[in-house]
Amino acid sequence: MKKLVLLGVFAVFFMFASTAAASEIKVLTQPAVKGDSVSSLGTVLIKITGGALKNGDIGLFRLPEDFRFCNEDESTMTQGDWVEQLSNEAIMVGNAKNYVKIPRKYGGKENALYGQGNLSVTQLDENEIMLKVNTTPDISQDSYILLYLGAIYIDEDAGEIIMSMRAPSGSGFPFPSTDKLGRTGGAKVKVNADTEQDDAQKDQADVDKTAPAEKPVAEEVETTGIDKKIIKFAIGSMQATLNGSTVSLDAAPYINSSGFTMVPLRFIAEALNVRVEWLPNLSQVNIYGDSNILINVETGAVYIDNSIHQLPSPPEVIAPGRVFVPLRFVSETQHAEIDYEKNHKVITIKR
């Protein structure tokens, strides 16, 4: 009997240890931004395993000293700016740039914390907020919280930008934690926003043939300059032409289920003489051309010169691991002339 009791105790212990391990904090991007400016920083995802949160739990988020949460006009946010907004798909608390989002679903799973008034935000200082849980979520479902940092005043000499997250003992928030939100001093601009997709399906997405998923470092491809570029694709064809020369593709352009024409990102980027950098650990692609662009492959969110956008249709990863984006993205971000010959389904890109 003693053995059975001990086995039961160990079973319960390991069950809760395993459950606790499921909670996580993930910074979906780590942008490079300019100091002494109001810029977008990384979006923070907090996943809390079912049964961990309870009514009254709090979590504190603190930006570095001399940083501050800002409104669209770059004024400092106050408590009155943290307004709850409701929709059928999500609840947001904040302004148009900085807000806490509680999606109805995340990764196809119901969010236990979704509901009006279930989470409140209190601004403690110009660089610190407190989240408070006002309900005990369903223990059979995980809770998901996204913190969007779209307008943050960045101190002039910040260097690496670290957010401190902490909680009182006994709180269900998976804190303490210190996470890098970005850095200053570089010309790169990086992206992120939240995802309503299943992250696990795309964590291993390989963006190009030179970037194996198992490599932990960023890879860069340099291209040489040619004055004029003319690229031709045909929908469904594994061949393209670049300035009249035939080249082989390992994944063909196509029209997706939403009716968007999807084209291979890396091939076009390199053909247009822009530098491409793949960050495998973050599932992000940096594109350095006339503008600094970063695409989050998981979400379709895009930063273009420090401004956040959303692709008209999310990126899609096609075997053997090629990222495809809507043709419209190419025309709008690369200032390219696009011609579509409907009868033969031929796309011509000129720049």
TrEMBL record:
Where does the Copper amine oxidase-like N-terminal domain start and stop, copy by copy? 242-349
Name the residue ranges with Basic and acidic residues bias: 199-218
A Pfam family the protein falls into: Cu_amine_oxidN1
Q: Keyword set for this entry? A: Signal
What range does the record give for the signal peptide?
1-22
Q: Which InterPro entries match?
A: Cu_amine_oxidase-like_N, Mao_N_sf
The protein, known as: Copper amine oxidase-like N-terminal domain-containing protein
